[in-house]
């Protein structure tokens, strides 16, 4: 009797841990992102290897990383406002498609042995602009994928788990593939991996919400976001912590500058 009770308790605990997966839209997102993020981390590691192999310059290696991140820093707040105004599903389909194209272009340049450092810097800036719109939209989109708000915290935790899981698997796979088939193939595989999340987004059935038209200007909403973030202690603490960790050199892939409304709720619960 005791073993059966233990099995029942274990099954209940597992169901509780993954309860957000009972929502079809989030289940699609979880599967697509699990594949796509592994490809993303493969590209990050491969790109650093490629830059150093081509230039043997620590400065240029750091500059490519800077070129990838600075657009997110500058455009993230505006992207957060636009994510509250526009259809998030369509934004994500667009950003993921553009990121896929970026990966294929990089793969083509490497495989044809025509890649130069200015190509890499330009494509890194391009990807940084894409990520500036993708990250805040993707985080706030979780609210729309999970119909029952009681499961939202679990969905955010699962989303973080696939990011960290991909951060572990992606570089490991990239190291093997770089040695076996070269950097170009790694970029190509990353491009293919985007198809999983694009297909998942297209398969989702999001219930349209009756939202009021935005009469205020973007600058006003942007100001509201900064005011709210600086005045609300939990979010202010999270932002300060993220800023400190980023300054110390940790690469935070899934953070974004929180803004009012849905985006702030997601960052706060995370």
Brief summary of the model shown:
The protein is mainly alpha-helical and 270 residues long.
Structure notes:
With 270 residues, the protein is mostly helical. It has a domain at 23-205: Growth Hormone, Chain: A. The chain has helices spanning 2-17, 24-55, 58-85, 88-111, 117-145, 152-180, 183-203, 218-231, 233-247, 262-269. Helix 5 (117-145) crosses helix 10 (262-269). The chain is globular.
**Helices and strands: which structural class?**
mainly alpha
CATH class of the domain at 23-205: Mainly Alpha
Q: Which architecture of the domain at 23-205 does the CATH hierarchy give at level 2?
A: Up-down Bundle
Largest sheet: none
What is the helix tally? 10
The helical percent reads over 70%
- CATH fold field value of the domain at 23-205: Growth Hormone, Chain: A
Distance between the termini: 39 Å
Gyration radius, rounded: 20 Å
What general outline do the C-alpha atoms trace?
Answer: globular
Mean pLDDT: 83
Q: Give the name of the CATH superfamily of the domain at 23-205.
A: MFS general substrate transporter like domains
Draw up the topology in text:
Blueprint: H1 2-17, H2 24-55, H3 58-85, H4 88-111, H5 117-145, H6 152-180, H7 183-203, H8 218-231, H9 233-247, H10 262-269
Helix pairs in contact: 2-3, 2-5, 2-6, 2-7, 3-5, 3-8, 4-5, 4-7, 5-10
List the keywords.
mainly alpha, 270 residues, Growth Hormone, Chain: A, globular
């Amino acid at each position: 009797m005791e073993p059966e009770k233990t099995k029942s308790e274990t099954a209940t605990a597992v169901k509780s841990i993954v309860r957000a997966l009972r929502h079809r839209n989030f289940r699609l997102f979880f599967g697509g992102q699990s594949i796509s993020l592994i490809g993303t981390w493969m590209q990050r590691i491969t790109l650093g290897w490629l830059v150093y192999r081509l230039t043997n310059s620590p400065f240029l290696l750091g500059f490519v990383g800077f070129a990838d991140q600075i657009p997110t820093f500058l455009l993230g707040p505006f992207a957060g406002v636009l994510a509250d105004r526009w259809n998030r599903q369509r934004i994500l389909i667009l950003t993921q498609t553009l990121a896929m194209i970026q990966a294929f272009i990089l793969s083509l340049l490497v495989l044809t042995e025509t890649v130069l450092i200015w190509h890499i810097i330009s494509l890194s800036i391009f990807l940084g602009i894409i990520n500036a719109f993708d990250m805040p939209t993707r985080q706030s989109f979780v609210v729309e994928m999970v119909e029952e708000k009681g499961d939202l915290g679990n969905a955010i935790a699962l989303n973080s788990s696939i990011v960290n899981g991909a951060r572990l698997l992606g570089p490991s796979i990239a190291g093997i593939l770089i040695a076996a088939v070269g950097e170009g193939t790694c970029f190509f595989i990353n491009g293919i991996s985007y198809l999983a999340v694009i297909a998942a987004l297209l398969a989702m059935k999001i219930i349209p919400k009756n939202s009021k038209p935005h009469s205020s200007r973007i600058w006003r909403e942007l100001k509201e976001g900064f005011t709210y973030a600086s005045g609300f202690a939990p979010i202010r603490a999270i932002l300060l912590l993220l800023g400190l960790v980023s300054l110390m050199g940790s690469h935070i892939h899934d953070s974004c500058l929180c803004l009012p409304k849905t985006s702030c709720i997601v960052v706060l619960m995370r």
